[in-house]
């Protein structure tokens, strides 16, 4: 039937659609109303698209989990490399400039390397001198003096005291100038001032003197206005007076009256010039879209500089210098060196020394050359001459591979910095641990100082010997809890073995406590014998955390409790042997723990290798721009220039392409 319908509708000359599509279209046309066929197809294609998209995302998620071990270190490498790339570029720039200076001055690489400390000292001295001779140096010196004054004993509170006294004085002046009997005096003064101004010949009035005479009237006006601000009247009066004084002095927006006309003419001329440039720019042809994209879509251009970070670190270093005065000596060394160098250049001392050294070398060179020719073999002299004169090829190769060298240098600096950070953290933790051990030992072995306060707060109900009772109760309860836990390992029906195991554990705990108590008594007696003699600080640290002493104590504990430990081990083994399933579960858990630890260790090693390789690759292949940003910049114009222009007919068509669009 369907074939007949197809033969009727399509002649032999027309192109027929595929049979399956034709059959599905006929079925949809018969089952669905005539107006819902397009909507049904669109819904089917949309559903198919979402199913395919869901399957694609599921596949991507599975691939992500498979590659997570590699993607995680790669992402971390990109993040760390983003931080390291500015340092790498700086190292590359400095080293290339240094090699270029060696090539221009025909200096051998060995001599240039030996002169590096001198050059660094010279550069540091020059930069320090220029910094301190500039306005920034004045600000730094002012900030240092301010911080030094504020941190000197009670100077900060003294400044607050001065501010409070000044506040009281200004408040008293405002109260006096707002009295009722002041107004007639101010009016009389104003009339006299106006009369004096009009009496003076025109153009011969001393404006500065006249403005000084008007200060009392300004003072009264500001005081009269400030009284309406209530508690803020002093603040309003001071701010208004300072603003008017700065404006009158020309610090804020001040200009001479003779220059006002010239300023206006200059402003009008600049405005006309800006309008002409704007009109010219509007009338000129616009650049192509590709040029606009290339000019605007630059992802590696810094929006702001690093001046804020420099100021922040500078303030932190300045505060640290204020707290540690010996740092001034290290800061004065480069300044002193720069001052001596400049003084020597001005007085001609260095030129005289240079000429003297040159003349001395000219007179000694002949005799020294004869001695060297006799003493050193010719092949060695040729090698030394080659080493000092024929290193241009090596310098050129080093300059070409500077990206690789700087990447290795930055990665070594990262490794060294990480190691130093770990050592610093370990030392801090060690110091805190020693402090806690000493504090806990002193609290347990002696009555704390706050015991008297505790007695007062408890109204005499807490006696001084109660703390010893509390410690003894804590020890007894802990000993009983440990014995109960060990007893639970034994069989409930075998009470004899359980009692033996419990007694042995209690005996071992008592022996350990007695040994620790004897050690504490010996330490206290040793300290009392020393009396007021000075003891090295490191002796206390070693006494609290001496690994050798700890090893000796553990060895002594094991020796004195060997029989008890063997009996406990035999009892525990007897309990475990009677319950093989429990023993098997413990062995399986230990084996799983070992295997998991081994796999985690291998994964960690692989991640470290991938991380270091990725960081090296990104740093070595990044020239003047960070490589990921270069990739993004190269892809962005293509993505922007490539538009997705879809017509209304295509977007409305019931196809899978329309569903995706």
TrEMBL record:
Alphabetized InterPro entries for the sequence: AI-2E-like
**What is the predominant subcellular site recorded for this chain?**
membrane
Membrane-spanning segments:
43-64, 181-199, 211-229, 235-254, 311-340, 346-364, 408-429, 572-595, 601-619
Alphabetized UniProt keyword annotations? Membrane, Transmembrane, Transmembrane helix
Q: How does it sit in the membrane?
A: Multi-pass membrane protein
Q: Where in the cell is it found?
A: Membrane
Instruction: Pull one GO CC term from this UniProt entry.
Output: membrane
Regarding protein family, the annotation reads: Belongs to the autoinducer-2 exporter (AI-2E) (TC 2.A.86) family.
Protein name (Swiss-Prot/TrEMBL):
Transmembrane protein
């Amino acid at each position: 039937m369907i074939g007949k319908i197809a033969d009727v509708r399509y002649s032999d000359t027309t192109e027929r659609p595929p049979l399956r599509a034709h059959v599905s279209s006929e079925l949809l046309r018969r089952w669905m109303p005539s107006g819902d066929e397009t909507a049904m197809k669109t819904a089917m294609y949309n559903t198919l698209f979402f199913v395919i998209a869901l399957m694609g995302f599921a596949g991507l998620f599975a691939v992500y989990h498979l590659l997570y071990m590699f993607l995680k270190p790669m992402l971390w490498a990109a993040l760390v490399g983003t931080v390291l790339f500015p340092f790498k570029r700086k190292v590359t720039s400095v080293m290339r400039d240094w090699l270029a200076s060696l090539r221009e001055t025909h200096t051998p690489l060995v001599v240039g390397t030996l002169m590096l400390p001198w050059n660094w000292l010279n550069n540091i001295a020059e930069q320090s001198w220029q910094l301190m001779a500039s306005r920034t140096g004045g600000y730094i010196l002012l900030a240092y003096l301010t911080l030094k004054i504020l941190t000197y004993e009670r100077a900060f509170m003294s400044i607050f005291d001065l501010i409070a006294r000044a506040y009281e004085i200004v408040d008293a002046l405002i109260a006096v100038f707002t009295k009722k009997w002041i107004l007639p005096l101010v009016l009389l003064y104003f009339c006299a001032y106006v009369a004096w101004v009009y009496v003076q010949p025109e153009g011969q009035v001393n404006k500065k003197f006249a403005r000084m005479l008007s200060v009392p009237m300004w003072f009264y006006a500001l005081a009269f206005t400030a009284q309406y601000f209530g508690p803020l009247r002093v603040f309003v009066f001071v701010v208004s007076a300072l603003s008017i004084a700065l404006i009158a002095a020309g610090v804020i927006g001040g200009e001479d009256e003779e220059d006002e006309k010239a300023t206006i003419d200059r402003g009008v001329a600049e405005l006309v010039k800006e309008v002409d440039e704007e009109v010219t720019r509007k009338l000129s042809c616009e650049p192509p879209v590709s040029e606009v994209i290339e000019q605007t879509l630059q992802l590696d251009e810094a929006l702001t500089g690093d001046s804020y970070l420099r100021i922040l670190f500078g303030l932190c270093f300045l505060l640290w210098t204020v707290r540690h005065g010996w740092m001034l000596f290290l800061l004065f060394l480069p300044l002193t060196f720069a001052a001596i160098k400049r003084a020597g250049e001005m007085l001609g001392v260095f030129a005289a020394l240079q000429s003297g050294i040159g003349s001395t070398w000219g007179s000694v060179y002949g005799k020294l050359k004869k001695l060297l020719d006799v003493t050193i073999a010719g092949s060695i002299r040729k090698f030394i001459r080659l080493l000092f004169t024929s290193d241009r090829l090596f310098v050129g190769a080093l300059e070409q591979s500077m990206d690789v060298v700087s990447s290795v240098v930055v990665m070594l600096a990262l490794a060294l910095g990480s190691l130093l950070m770990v050592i610093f953290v370990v030392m801090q933790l060690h110091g805190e641990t020693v402090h806690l051990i000493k504090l806990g030992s002193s609290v347990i072995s002696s009555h704390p100082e706050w015991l008297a306060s505790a007695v007062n707060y408890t109204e005499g109900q807490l006696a001084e010997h109660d703390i010893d009772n509390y410690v003894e109760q804590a020890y007894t309860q802990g000993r009983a809890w440990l014995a109960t836990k060990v007893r639970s390992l034994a069989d409930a029906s075998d009470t004899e073995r359980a009692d033996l195991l419990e007694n042995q554990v209690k005996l071992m705990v008592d022996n350990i406590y007695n040994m620790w108590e004897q050690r504490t008594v010996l330490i206290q007696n040793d300290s009392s014998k020393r009396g007021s003699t000075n003891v090295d600080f490191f002796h206390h640290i070693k006494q609290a955390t001496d690994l050798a002493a700890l090893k000796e104590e553990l060895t002594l504990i094991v020796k004195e409790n060997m029989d008890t430990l063997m009996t406990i081990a035999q009892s525990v083994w007897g309990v475990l042997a009677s319950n093989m399933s429990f023993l098997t579960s413990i062995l399986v858990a230990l084996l799983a723990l070992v295997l998991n630890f081994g796999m985690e260790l291998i994964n960690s090693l692989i991640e470290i290798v991938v991380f270091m390789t990725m960081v090296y690759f990104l740093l070595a292949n990044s020239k003047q721009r960070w490589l990921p940003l270069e990739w993004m910049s190269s892809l962005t114009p293509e993505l922007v220039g490539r538009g997705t222009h879809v017509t209304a007919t295509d977007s409305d068509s019931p196809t899978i392409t329309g569903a995706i669009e």
